[in-house]
Specification:
2 copies of one chain form a homodimer. The first copy, chain A, is of the alpha/beta class. The first copy, chain A, contains 21 helices and 13 strands. The first copy, chain A, has an 8-stranded parallel beta barrel with strand order 6-7-8-9-10-11-12-13, surrounded by 6 helices. A 3-stranded antiparallel β-sheet of chain A has the order 1-2-3. A two-stranded antiparallel sheet of chain A has the order 4-5. Chain A is globular and about 100 Å long. Chains A and B meet through helix 9, helix 10, helix 15, helix 16 and helix 17 of A and helix 9, helix 10, helix 15, helix 16 and helix 17 of B.
């Protein structure tokens, strides 16, 4: 960890509880302590929220970026025997062994431990947890569990610093990012990653080809298996939990992209395409795939098989090169699994709504239901600066159909590198997409939060409404804009309608009135109507008597 | 128009072309001139965009809010003979008459005039066009046409002024609102509406019960058919194009909402529920519905039959009171149509994704395919301050299934009245939803814009990418944040990846290389592979020779 000690200034990050909640830990077996954010409601009840924010939101925790986070998993990892060379959650799950990570996850998700083990064993879920990243709090990615989101950070040759990237990581998990990918391509790639890993309570992913390309001075043709392999080992040793590998970009698929509107839009995909053509050979990622599996299994690094030929525009969605690559990823999935290496499959990109479901169907069929991990997809190309929204639409739909993790898109997509505000906007948009999908999939615990928030809304418990929301700070500040006074936070109306037009207030009045007059059922209403009809009869059946005069 | 002359200060509004486009007019028969925004591309081509912004974005137009907009439709309206008392587009369409409004729309939508007439005649589309609002540019709402969006504006007792509301209307149409509803409930309701109508090139909708309630000092029990009728006539005379009427909130449905988490959340619905219970009588909107039809048909005001019992939370979606009311709206639709009055049906609200399609199916079945006009729906309740996003998700899906118009939701929903920024955020989110649905419905003209923008993106025509987008100002400013210099607008990379990692640049290099070496087809690649295999053979079949050493 000398990289951290050498640096003069440690990154400063956002700490302290999120408004209206405090961190507590749920105790389980094996010394497992699962963090949740507890919201105390003004009704006297409380509501516990799934929490990705790590010790940063714990008032009791001491944060020292230079020292890194506590090594939560170190005792578990230390006690484990390799199974035939494998230390992967997949190997243990297949052998019927329940790891502490699985117990942690079962509590976190509110499910049976056996469900966790079984889903991992058949490869329908993955637990990205490199043994060299003991700081991470275990989490699971799979369609039977809550939909997860990934936030991309990382510098480029043009902009950004280590301090900014560490701050973005902490900021992203504060708002709910389940995983973070460090996609740095600029300076100090190794050191940036070291700071991020030692301070991250969530799994960290990378795309090793980026660093490998830096090592060969940016010329794709100079890449080789050896340079790549060394880079992968370096990153495994550091603790990277999952790696994007574009091993499905085969030489013969490259010319098939020539007629696309947007060619190859994946950085890794285009690098490998350039290498294949320059050497007129099959991709070294493909030809050395088994060797790569053997490296990853000794650390328990999860494959994120990259979609180097994903569509970069609506026009290119679900086209032949995209699907040809997906099929190849399916072959590779089965190879990796046979060597006990966990696998996720990356997916598009840009897809119109009516072509989204097909992506999930084919991925499940060809890739043995390996967890699907998609970038959006964007449901239209026409809104640069709003692609967190265009893609939240596609992401919600694809997650509803079974995608297990959604890679966020920020408002800066296609235009520039995201800053802190963009990271938050992307994370919140994707929490919305993920939760909408959990609702649509009828996840047993999903709707409770909607119900609690809506009940608070209807009962004018404004503070509870804010605190149960995805972003209490912004919800409260929007309310403050028109009604900043504290009494307004308990007022039975708001600035939208004012007191006279408040439907919720009128509904309360209606309920009170109905209760008082015994009009609380359809039967009572109908009996009352009959009585009124009698009265009407007695008064001479003046049918056209204006109601107002009655 | 004395209201406008009396006022000391005329509202100031945003004028001038949207960045990168200029207004032109497409000429048609009957003196029809259809506005479009023309984007001149740096490739030498141009792209015409559907335009809702009115004369405000025309450099040649003189804008004088006090004088109002030119009365575009006055000559057409003046020449028309009533058909049996009706002056509605529905009556003319049924009689086989093609109005100038229909011709205008056919050009605007790029479809046959006969399609327009036929869809209006069967009630599957409406043209909201009060003869007292001659300033409006004709537009159509129906599932066979482009999906439309509505922006709500209007003051409340707590906040806002006439100036702000007129400015918001012009601002909303600048960014693409097809229709605007004035939902004012505060001071100067009549005068505010007058300023809006005289200056609006888009149809204007209202909810007359709001003004009626003001007239009886805010006590729902004091409402009467007479007060309501007078208000409706006043608004018809002013030129309101469509009116929300909550005539489906029947007395017997009211107690059925008692067990909901969020009761009745529609303002109009709760007002009518209060009236029904207080008087223990059926709603006067229901009992006087035919009389109401007769008023609307003499102006060609379109019904927007309100969903007073729409769900206000995920828990209440698709419940019995909601669907009971929808069925009643179906009855009313057939009554209105039989009197040649145009009808749309309002829909929810808050609905999880898996329950959205059912709403469209039932609406179409029960309401004779009258255009569905939905508020979102929000796909989750947990994100106040981001409900433009939660609802854009639901809106995209419901529009894909056939909803013809989407009522926007702004980030301030549930929290406060929208300001200018919120209005724009809501409009853009809904343009995204509407366009995503047009793509998913495979509307013949929808994808051309995506293709043009994506081609510009791939070819590094940054300015064209900005100008073809929904919001050129923001797209450009985001790009400027990291690369403000003008040469960056033609650079073959951006700040995200820098020059070395630019997939688009590498793809171009790959294409150039492949072209030069004749590797532009799978066949060529395979022939090349075979040749390499020969060479490999000659070199002694060293299978495990490291590729890097070759």
């Amino acid at each position: 960890m000398s990289a951290l000690e050498d640096r003069a200034v440690a990154p400063s990050v956002t700490v302290g509880p999120i408004q209206g909640s405090r961190k507590i830990y749920l105790a389980g077996p094996d010394g497992v302590r699962v963090p949740v954010r507890r919201v105390e409601l003004t009704s006297g009840e409380h509501f516990d929220l799934y929490d990705t924010s790590g010790p940063y939101t714990d008032n009791e925790a001491t944060i020292d970026a230079r020292a890194g986070l506590p090594k939560l998993r170190a005792p578990w990892i230390g006690q484990r025997e390799p199974l035939g060379g494998a230390v992967t959650q997949l190997a243990y799950a297949k052998a019927g062994i329940v790891t502490p990570e699985m117990r942690f996850i079962a509590i976190r998700e509110g499910v049976d431990t056996e469900l966790v083990r079984r889903e991992v064993a058949i490869g329908r879920a993955v637990i990205p947890a490199n043994r060299c990243h003991p700081e991470s709090e275990p989490m699971i990615i799979g369609k039977r569990f809550l939909v997860k989101i990934n936030a991309n950070i990382g510098n480029s040759a043009v902009t950004s610093s280590i301090e900014e990237e560490v701050d973005k990581m902490v900021w992203a998990i504060r708002w709910g990012a389940d995983n973070v990918m460090d996609l740095s391509t600029g300076k100090n790639i190794h050191e940036t990653r070291e700071w991020i890993l030692r301070n991250s309570p969530v799994p960290i992913g990378t795309v090793p080809i980026y660093q490998a390309l830096e090592k060969v001075k940016g010329d794709p043709a100079k890449l080789s298996w050896d340079v790549y392999k060394d880079t992968v080992i370096e990153q495994c040793e550091q603790g990277v939990d999952y790696m994007t590998v574009h091993a499905g970009v085969l030489l013969r698929y490259v010319p098939r992209t020539a007629k696309r509107i947007t060619g190859i839009v994946s950085r890794g995909g285009s690098i490998m395409a350039a290498w294949c053509l320059a050497h007129h050979k099959e991709s070294f990622l493909y030809t050395h795939f088994e060797e790569l599996c053997d490296i990853l299994r000794t650390y328990d690094v999860t494959f994120s098989l990259g979609d180097g030929l994903r569509p970069g525009s609506i026009a290119d969605a679900n086209d032949e090169p995209q699907l040809a690559e997906l099929k190849t990823l399916g072959e590779l999935t089965h190879i990796a699994r046979s060597r006990d290496v966990q696998v996720m499959i990356e997916g598009p990109g840009h897809v119109p709504m009516h072509k989204i479901a097909e992506n999930v169907r084919l991925e499940e069929e060809w890739c043995g239901e390996a967890p699907f991990y998609t970038l959006g997809p964007l449901a239209t190309d026409i809104a640069p600066a709003y692609d967190h929204i265009t893609s939240a639409i596609g992401a919600s739909i694809i997650a509803w159909h079974g995608t297990a993790m959604l890679c966020y898109v920020t408002p800066k997509e296609h235009l520039g590198l995201p800053n802190r505000d963009d990271v938050k906007a992307g994370v919140i948009a994707y929490k919305i997409a993920a939760h909408s999908a959990d609702l649509a999939k009828q996840h047993p615990r999903a709707q409770a939060r909607d119900d609690a928030l809506s009940a608070a809304r209807f009962e004018f418990r404004w503070t509870d409404q804010f605190n149960l929301s995805l972003d209490p700070d912004t919800a409260r500040s929007f309310h403050d804009e028109t009604l900043p006074a504290e009494p307004a936070k308990t007022a039975h109306f708001c600035s939208m309608c004012g007191p006279k037009f408040c439907s919720m207030k009128i509904t309360q009045d209606v309920r009170d009135y109905a209760e008082k007059h015994g009009l609380t059922s359809v039967e009572a209403i109908e009996a009352g109507m009959a009585e009124k009809a009698e009265e009407f009869h007695r008064r001479g059946e003046r049918l056209y008597l204006p109601i107002a005069a009655d």
